[in-house]
Design a protein that fits this description.
The chain is an alpha/beta fold and 357 residues long. Helices cover 18% and strands 23% of the residues. The protein contains 6 helices and 14 strands. β13, α5 and β14 form a beta-alpha-beta unit. It is rod-shaped. The two termini are 53 Å apart.
């Protein structure tokens, strides 16, 4: 299953400044000669691979990116200043292609890699450039060259940072619709998602993570029953699992604790490493539980489930409790990203300059 995050942007490099026609005017200097300077070059547009980013969500909110134009040339041999460059931060693995032709232009594969996606225009020549032995007073100048303008498609094949676990109709699709830009199919009757939905959750500027709504698991999924087994492999690459539990099932005879234990059992059967991944308990649909019964019901569930990890109480439908959960998820994902990027500790005996004895 391939998940793709994409965005379309327009970039415009700066135009070059125009050259200047000017002559030296100084007392007692009858023929001062030309002194018009060249225009400055326009600003470039760069793209840099930033390992701290993992989605393209910021480019959906700012699609137009323009660099400054170069200043015009001036008299007294003064050249125009170059326009300021701009640098766009993109996740590692971003594929940059022409939005009109589909031609692949660049691919950011290594952290810190920088490519020029739009080149600024060169500045025009002032009349100082045209001075010669036979043309002592040139009045020619040239305009600045226009900067490159491109419509680009940004594409990133992403894997989810957070996976949602739970029985069919536990409210996973409603949760992903509440916190992200994904719009999965949601119904008011028990049914399971047929295809995984991927949503980008934007916490703040350059702060986001990817959450996957995995089809609901049923007992026997690890042996191939139902749909969940097709996507359990995808969960192996996530950094955090959210176990979503329906605290107000349609059928009152259904025990949420038994269902939650069945999900955990399937995880353990499928892969021990997946079972040992960080997992948080998310108790959903509390808006359907009377306020005076919520605390007791939550306490009873946690006690019978024998859960000792983090517990979050939410209502995906009303978005109650979703914001604190999203912020906690981002902090956890960010901490794991930083830990993965930290340099490995070197034994001081083998450090540079300390040869082994």
């Amino acid at each position: 299953m391939k998940f793709v995050d994409e965005a379309f942007i327009d970039v415009a490099a700066g135009d070059g400044g125009n050259g200047c026609v000017s002559f030296r005017h100084e007392k007692y200097k009858e023929f001062g000669g030309p002194n018009g300077g060249d225009g400055g070059r326009g600003g470039h547009v760069f793209a840099v691979a930033d390992p701290n980013l993992n989605t393209l969500v910021d480019f959906r909110y700012s699609r137009r990116h323009e660099a400054k134009r170069g200043e015009h040339g001036m008299g007294s041999d003064m050249f125009g200043a170059a326009g300021s460059d701009i640098t766009l931060k993109m996740p590692v693995g971003t594929i940059i292609s022409d939005a009109n032709t589909g031609e692949l232009l660049y691919e950011l594969l290594t952290p810190g890699e920088v490519v020029t996606i739009a080149k600024g225009g060169d500045g025009g020549f002032g009349n100082l450039r045209f001075k010669s032995a036979i043309n002592r007073a040139p009045r020619q100048k040239t305009p600045g060259w226009p900067g490159e303008r491109k419509s680009l498609k940004l594409e990133l094949k992403v894997l989810a940072d957070v996976g949602l676990l739970g029985m069919p109709n536990a409210g996973k699709s409603t949760f992903i619709a509440a916190v992200s830009n994904a719009r999965p199919k949601i119904a008011d009757y028990p049914f399971t998602t047929l295809h995984p939905n991927l949503g980008v959750v934007r916490v703040g500027p350059e702060q986001s993570f990817v959450v996957a709504d995995i089809p609901g698991l049923i007992e026997g999924a690890s042996e191939g029953a139902g749909l969940g087994h097709q996507f359990l492999r995808h969960l192996q690459r996530t950094r955090l699992l959210l176990h979503v539990v329906d605290m107000a099932p349609f059928d009152e005879s259904v025990d949420p604790v038994a269902q939650a234990k069945a999900i955990v059992a399937e995880l353990k059967k499928y892969d021990t490493q997946l079972y040992e991944k960080p997992r948080w308990l998310v108790l959903n649909k509390l808006d359907m539980v009377p306020a005076e019964e919520r605390a007791a019901r939550v306490k009873d569930f946690v006690k019978r489930f024998k859960w000792k990890g983090p517990v979050f109480e939410i209502s995906a439908l009303t978005r109650e409790g979703c914001e604190p959960l999203v912020k906690a998820i981002y902090q956890h994902v960010r901490a794991q990203q930083q830990a993965a990027q930290a340099p490995a500790e070197v034994d001081p005996r083998f450090a540079e300059g300390n040869p082994p004895a």
